Amino acid sequence: MLHIKFSKQNKSVCEECGNHLSMDSMERIKPSIDPNTWIPLDEDTISKDVLSFYDEESYENRLISSQEKTGLPKAVQTGIGYSNGTLIAPGVMDFQFMGGSMGSAVGEKITRLIEYATQKLLPLVLVCASGGARMQEGIVSLMQMAKISSALHYYQVQKKLLYISILTYPTTGGVTASFGMLGDIIIAESKAYIAFSDKRVIEETLGQKVPNGFQLAKALFENGLLDLIVPGILIKDVLSEILD
User: CoA carboxyltransferase N-terminal domain location, by residue (predicted)?
Assistant: First the structure.
């Protein structure tokens, strides 16, 4: 049994087992940004149902219910703020909004944040928590991978600015296949699930058994895909040290 008060004080990390509990985007922003310094950007950017998509219910209704559930217009929050006195441009995905899936609005917000950070010469920090590209927007959602990666290329290669990617549970699909793994420094939270395709999909496609733990942070670190594994409670301090 975990008491909410003490759980929040410990950044939603269980003191007994070290497992990280789910957190919404604001729960990640508040402890990472200095008090009264957070300024959100592009809050009016919203997704459109360009395909009139319908499965068990319409995409439009899914958007409305997710907005009511989370209080957010889309699955990412972007802005600027100070972290231990250093001005940064963070973007934080919210898995509670349609599984943190990346639609046109998410891609546009992240791209605008990168462009703003490029213009103002700010360090960029993106916190990933996503099921991947949003299927209800089809090819439009897939194109966000290229759009964000292109903006990042200019930011990193042409301007030589610092991008830190933080991978949380879960980071999958098109987010892993684009900006999630493009950080100059890639940090994963302890025991985070990070993958492109799910274990079941890989096994059914290739007809091969995937080892247990193959897609957890520790295995990725041992195979050179991550730079650091950091418990959530230490993320702000580690960011501060890197930025210094």
Answer: 1-244
